[in-house]
């Protein structure tokens, strides 16, 4: 499967490349080897230098939680465009990682405004009002059905119900931390994944990413290593047998990206779906 040419359709008629790169440093390498979908921040220089035409790649960015006040939304987008040295984005998401989010942080320049006890300082802003301000960026009055939902999703966090719900509404799920994240979760060490990888002469990461794409998700692996960035692009069609065997692997329900633990004050529990 040539991932550069492989896309998922969404409810707004857009086709989304189903392999996305989440990284800061590696965009140029990625453009060179063929990535065409970026989840990004602080990478304007790389975009400014590439000769790949702008309409040949896809850029996603996010509204950070300290800009949830409706009046902060437009300026935040402008700041992002200036930082990226681009004049438009293809997709703009509200940043929200867990079931306790979307959560407005204190408005201002601090990314994580903390109180003396080390708890994040929140503000009483309804995400519905933030969303309306996001919609206004496109049209003064529109009722936009969200096209993409980005959530943590990997072998240990299948989110089957959410995935089925999203497919029913043509809403694309982007799987972040598709390799289990940077803290060595062990998904690439699963014996079955290793066995399939060895048999097919692929890497465990390629098996997991191919499985994610076959499940109908966009996958957004992150790597700072040029060889792995390139290899992660070379996905393939898993057989039905291998696909189903991976689906049957133990469902551990582990979430790796868990901001509540860092910010304290909020219970560290979750349901898969
Ligand atoms: N919306 C959100 O709240 C949110 C939260 C977290 C992440 N994200 C998005 O998801 C992206 C990826 O998430 P992530 O970094 O948490 O997880 P990930 O892509 O699952 O894992 C990244 C880790 O896997 C390693 N890796 C990459 N390719 C590999 C390969 N072929 N073989 C072995 N190891 C490999 C990387 O190391 P090397 O660099 O050494 O290759 C890195 O340590 C982020 O960049 C971001 O765009 C979104």
Automatic annotation (TrEMBL):
Site feature (Lowers pKa of active site Tyr) residues: 62
MF term (GO), any: oxidoreductase activity
Amino-acid positions noted as binding substrate in the UniProt annotation, renumbered to this chain: 95
One Pfam family it belongs to: Aldo_ket_red
Ranges for domain NADP-dependent oxidoreductase: 24-250
Entries under InterPro entries matching the protein: AKR (IPR020471), Aldo/ket_reductase_CS (IPR018170), NAD(P)_OxRdtase_dom_sf (IPR036812), NADP_OxRdtase_dom (IPR023210)
Name the record gives this protein: Aldo/keto reductase
The species this protein was found in: Basidiobolus meristosporus CBS 931.73
């Amino acid at each position: 499967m040539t991932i550069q040419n492989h896309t998922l359709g969404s409810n707004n008629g857009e086709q989304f490349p189903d392999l996305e790169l989440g990284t800061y440093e590696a965009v140029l390498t990625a453009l060179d080897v063929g990535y065409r979908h970026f989840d990004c921040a602080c990478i304007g220089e790389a975009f400014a230098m590439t000769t790949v035409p702008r309409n040949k790649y896809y850029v996603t960015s996010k509204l950070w939680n300290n800009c949830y006040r409706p009046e902060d939304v437009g300026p935040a987008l402008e700041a992002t465009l200036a930082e990226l040295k681009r004049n438009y984005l293809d997709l703009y998401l509200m940043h929200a990682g867990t079931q306790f989010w979307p959560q407005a942080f204190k408005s201002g320049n601090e990314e994580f405004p903390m109180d003396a006890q080390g708890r994040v300082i929140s503000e009483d802003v309804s995400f519905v009002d933030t969303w309306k301000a996001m919609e206004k960026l496109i049209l003064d009055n529109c009722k936009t059905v969200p096209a993409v939902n980005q959530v943590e999703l990997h072998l240990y966090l299948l989110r089957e119900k959410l995935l089925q719900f999203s497919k029913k509404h043509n809403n694309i799920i982007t799987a972040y931390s598709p390799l289990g994240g940077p803290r060595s979760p062990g998904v690439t060490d699963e014996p079955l994944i290793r066995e399939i990888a060895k048999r097919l002469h692929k890497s465990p990461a390629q098996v997991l990413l191919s499985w994610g794409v076959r499940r109908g998700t966009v996958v957004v692996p992150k790597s700072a290593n040029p060889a792995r960035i390139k290899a992660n692009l070379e996905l393939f069609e898993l057989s039905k047998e291998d696909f189903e065997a991976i689906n049957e692997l133990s469902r551990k329900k582990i979430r790796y990206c868990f901001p509540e633990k860092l910010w304290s004050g909020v219970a560290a529990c979750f349901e898969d779906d």
